[in-house]
Specification:
The complex is a heterodimer.
Chain A (H helix, E strand, L loop, with lengths): L5 H5 L22 E4 L4 E3 L4 E3 L5 E4 L12 E5 L6 E9 L25 H15 L2 E14 L2 E12 L4 E11 L2 E10 L3 H15 L1 E2 L2
Antiparallel strand pairs in A: 1-4, 2-3, 3-11, 4-5, 5-6, 6-10, 7-8, 8-9, 9-10
Chain B lengths: L8 H6 L2 H7 L26 H18 L8 H14 L8 E5 L6 E3 L4 E5 H6 L3 H16 L2 H12 L2 H17 L11 H6 L5 H17 L6 H19 L17 H15 L10 H8 L3 H9 L4 H12 L5 H14 L4 H12 L7 H13 L3 H14 L6 H8 L1
Classes of the chains: A alpha+beta, B mainly alpha.
């Protein structure tokens, strides 16, 4: 569930329930986090590398998991309830950012290579609403922004989750060769968002595609 | 993986449902007649028994938490409207009820033992007129007027032996920990509270009967309460059929144990019994739509973005029985776009182009119409649609992106 716990980031708090979380039971006493040092780190399936301005905690991928998405990795500074960065490193067309059963009544839409920025933004909104328990989601801004050397976009938003906390987020993303690359920052709107935003911006600036 | 480890039917049956299961024995029973349903509670009711006083204390704490929640929709016009509505169909306790509207996109409403009700915003979306909403509120009031919560609480405690109490607590604990994702019942641990008040089949029948009587007295067509039930069952079936599974649900405003078909027959019979021939009834549809009109786009948005195409499509079609408009056509397109199966882009594009013909088409319909045209290579038309969007919503949050496209 490690990467899937991006939901914990992506989804703010709702998914960080002890029973569901990789933070809790299923790691047999080992921490499921490792340190991301201040040096170039390759993230997700290795499709992207970044440098953080200070150490972050990266959620470790588990060896055998059907629920992890290879191209998704989560980092946090103060724990997934409060802040987190999710990397999506080259998701293929037709694939989903999150593991889900086909029988779920509510589904997060899959990514398609021909999606425009508003469609990607809408996919992310559904992710928060369907999997994160967001009851309100406000788009604050959607604008063009260069990313990884191509024409990407920046999405700013805030959402009220069912734990009654407002969270705020920023995503910088682009579709490169038909694959989706995103760096997504989501944190409690009060204090934590502003506190880690400079880190996020530095990480985005440092992002490089695998050569 | 337990992202949907919510309070399932099974955990209810194992745990909190132990008593409810015991109550739900026997299949055929005589219909409870509205005429026999007298309220057991008068105005200004306060508990005198020790156990009930304890329960009230707990519930007062829950109400305090709920009334301060930022999930509540704080629209004075709508909250006043709901208060007036429960004041007109609340029977003898009408003046004692409190009612809260929570922004939760689900078909649900619930009455707590102390006489406060929580209505989910998803309920307002699904009601076609005021009579339907009044019917649901009257049904919930009926649970209070017939003292169902304290009765089921006592019944459960009487019937559960030590072993069952252990499993009951386990069921509740499990439910409380698992609730949250997608099921929106974390508000004041509603899941835990509700599992303590599983109404029996008989109690549901009582609430139906008293509800029919109360809305008749307020001048609403009593048959609307049966129509609500039909819409709920229809939507759940549509949603489940879409994912190729059987309809299944933990709890909802009409607990699920009576077979839907039996319930429907009884509700129609209740309605027929209380309807006074020759009396003029009014469903007050215009007043309803006028009151919730300001939040209807938000309600539709909250529902459709959950990407539950079976339920959303059923719901939009149900609302469209009263006439299509730009808002409904637009959200029909959104259902297809989010479903995102082969061919859905074409379906969505058709809905958007149908939506923008209506004068009430929302600005977003023009934007998505533009995006669909753009993807179809019809650039000039797309630009015109984007220009229209920006004219309608000059400070749209995505104006920068759209301007680049319209460039």
């Amino acid at each position: 569930m490690t990467k899937m716990m991006k939901a914990a980031l992506v989804a703010g708090a709702a998914l960080a329930l002890p029973a569901c979380s990789s933070i809790g039971g299923d790691t047999f006493g080992m921490s499921s986090y490792s340190l991301a040092r201040v040096a170039r780190q390759s993230v997700g399936d290795g499709g992207l590398s970044v440098v953080a301005p200070r150490p972050w905690n990266r959620q470790r991928a588990r060896l055998f998991s059907f629920f992890d998405i290879r191209e998704v990795e989560d980092w946090t500074l103060n724990g997934p309830y409060l802040d987190g960065i999710t990397f999506v490193t080259g998701l293929k067309s037709g694939r989903n950012m999150i593991y889900q059963r086909r029988s779920e009544n509510q589904q997060v839409p899959a990514f398609r290579a021909d999606m425009t920025a508003p469609e990607i933004a809408s996919m992310l909104e559904s992710l928060y609403r369907v999997r994160g328990g967001a009851v309100d989601f406000k788009t604050l801004g959607l604008q063009p922004r260069p990313f990884l050397g191509v024409n990407g976009f920046q999405l700013d938003y805030e959402h009220l989750d069912d734990d009654e906390l407002w969270r705020k987020g920023r995503v910088v993303g682009a579709v490169v060769n038909g694959r989706l690359y995103l760096i997504l920052f989501d944190a409690a709107r009060l204090h934590y968002y502003n506190a880690a935003l400079p880190d996020f911006e530095a990480i985005v600036q440092s992002a490089q595609l695998r050569r | 993986m337990c992202l949907r480890c919510d309070l399932t039917r099974r955990s209810l049956l194992i745990g909190g449902g132990a008593a409810a299961a015991a109550l739900a024995t026997g299949t055929a029973q005589a219909r409870i007649r509205p005429a026999d349903m007298v309220p057991l509670i008068g105005p200004g009711y306060r508990p005198t028994d020790k156990d009930e006083m304890g329960l009230w204390k707990e519930m007062e704490r829950a109400e305090e938490e709920i009334s301060g929640s930022n999930l509540l929709i704080d629209d004075p016009r709508i909250t006043t409207y709901l208060r007036d509505l429960i004041g007109s169909v609340g029977g003898p306790a009408a003046k004692d009820f409190r009612i809260y509207l929570a922004r939760i996109p689900q078909f649900n409403a619930m009455m707590f033992p102390t006489g406060f009700a929580v209505v989910f915003s998803g309920l307002l979306l699904r009601m076609r007129n005021e009579a339907q909403l009044a019917g649901v509120i009257a049904h919930e009031s009926g649970h209070f007027l017939r003292r169902h919560q304290i009765r089921s609480w006592r019944d459960m405690r009487k019937k559960t032996d030590i072993f069952a109490i252990g499993t009951m607590l386990a069921g509740i604990g499990g439910g409380a920990a698992g609730v949250g994702v997608g099921d929106y019942v974390r508000l004041a641990e509603l899941g835990t509270l509700l599992s303590l008040f599983r109404y029996s089949r008989e109690m549901e029948a009582e609430a139906d009967a008293i509800g029919a009587k109360l809305i008749e007295q307020a001048g609403y067509p009593p048959v609307e309460i049966a129509n609500v039930w039909q819409q709920l069952v229809g939507e759940e079936q549509a949603s489940a059929a879409y994912r190729r599974k059987r309809r299944d649900r933990g709890y909802d405003l009409f607990a699920t144990h009576p077979a839907p078909e039996d319930r429907m027959v009884d509700l129609r019979a209740d309605a027929a019994e209380v309807t006074v021939p020759g009396k003029l009834y009014d469903a007050r549809r215009a007043r309803y739509l006028d009151t919730i009109g300001s939040i209807r786009p938000m309600l539709l948005d909250d529902q459709v973005k959950l990407n539950d195409p079976g339920a959303s499509e059923y719901l939009i079609k149900t609302l469209a029985l009263d006439g299509w408009n730009g808002l409904l056509r637009f959200y029909e397109g959104e259902v297809w776009r989010l479903r995102n199966r082969p061919g859905d882009d074409v379906r969505a594009a058709q809905s958007y182009s149908a939506a923008v013909v209506y004068p009430d088409a929302p600005a977003d319909a023009w934007r998505w119409h533009g995006i669909a045209l753009l993807k179809a290579g019809r650039t000039a038309e797309a630009k015109a649609a984007f220009a229209r969007y920006l004219a309608m919503k000059p400070d749209a949050p995505d104006a920068a992106w759209v301007r680049q496209m319209a460039g």
